[in-house]
Amino acid sequence: MSLPAYLRAEGPQRVFAALPGARAVGGCVRDALAGLSVHDLDMAAPFPPEVIAERLAAAGFRVFETGLKHGTVTAVLGGAPIEVTSLRRDVTTDGRHAEVEWTTDWDEDAARRDFTINAMSMGGDGVLHDPFGGQADLVARRVRFVGDADQRLREDYLRALRFFRFQARYGGPVPDAEAVRAIRAAVPGLARLSAERVWSEIKRLMAAPDPREALRLMAETGVLPAVLPEAGEVARLNLALSRGVTEVVLRMAMLLPVGTDITALASRLRLSGEEAARLRALHAIADAPAPHERDPDTLRRFAARARIRSEAAQPAEILLVAAAAHPHEDYAGLLAAMPPGLGPAFPLQGRDALALGLPHGPRIGQLLAAAREWWLAGGAKADHAACLEQLRQLAEAETS
């Protein structure tokens, strides 16, 4: 086999020269064989990590000890990073973490990997090393554990979630029966996983071109209710796929039923503040009935209410979430009629009330809310001057 283009670049060529016997490993080999773009280049070498770091530095790389405890350094040349890891064998495992020793045995290193399609490697001579039949599994669209599936899962229960991510991207219509059996038996072990790693795997799965079958299999094996009990019917994503929705958080919002406690979910899975805010925004008015009228005033009013509830989501996005929750309502027609962009913003702020001479206090908020309802009732069209006059009239009516 000739050397693929991604290994003919200067970076990997320098690694091969500095570390005799080094090979590209894992995802880059898998994706190149699958005809996909290679984004992350991982390599391995039969040397201890300190020797790897020293030799790569001498070869002109900037070297960062990003995971020295686990045998990994990151070598950067011309802005392009390459992760280089020592060959390893497991000494002890506890279901999530492993104590490792360095080895020079490539088969030992391959035997500790999760799936056959991730256990392949390729040296600088272009020879593919495939001790567990990963290339055949890739062609057959079969995601299969290396060796004993139960043992692989006992070593690291996160592999159960990784299985579904890889199944969504590389698997065929019939999943590996042994893998499914072992994962079903391993569900109790998922409780040992950290929330951050669970959310990371869920996001990666949801980013797959079509995650629906993998999600259905997760539900059938008991994995989905174990890690994401809030999830609704997978069919909720039908609209997302038909509309070309690829954003992970928007897909998640469409999967979650209306009324989901987003705050509790965000806390449990350790979502970022931005992710949590966007989920809340997307669910802001998803439980509101779709307006049946399609006149401009009604559409502006709906879009304006969406903006009032949240600045972090477009009205059309909120409608997608609502449509996923209420497939029998005519959200499709509303989506088609909805103008692009955020709805109009209410023209007044607290400083406008103060400029009228209204005293500080909670009454300002109440008067602004009343003026805003007047603005919405008129189709959210009144400008700043008209809204200010309405606020003045409301304040005078209150004191008269």
Automatic annotation (TrEMBL):
Family: Belongs to the tRNA nucleotidyltransferase/poly(A) polymerase family.
Names of the cofactor(s): Mg(2+)
The organism's place on the tree of life at top rank: Bacteria
Organism the protein comes from: Sediminicoccus rosea
Domain Poly A polymerase head: 23-144
Protein name: CCA tRNA nucleotidyltransferase
Lineage, top ranks: Bacteria, Pseudomonadati, Pseudomonadota, Alphaproteobacteria, Acetobacterales
Bilayer-crossing regions: none
Residue ranges annotated for the tRNA nucleotidyltransferase/poly(A) polymerase RNA and SrmB- binding domain, each copy included: 177-231
Keywords assigned by UniProt, alphabetized: Magnesium, Metal-binding, Nucleotide-binding, Nucleotidyltransferase, RNA-binding, Transferase, tRNA processing
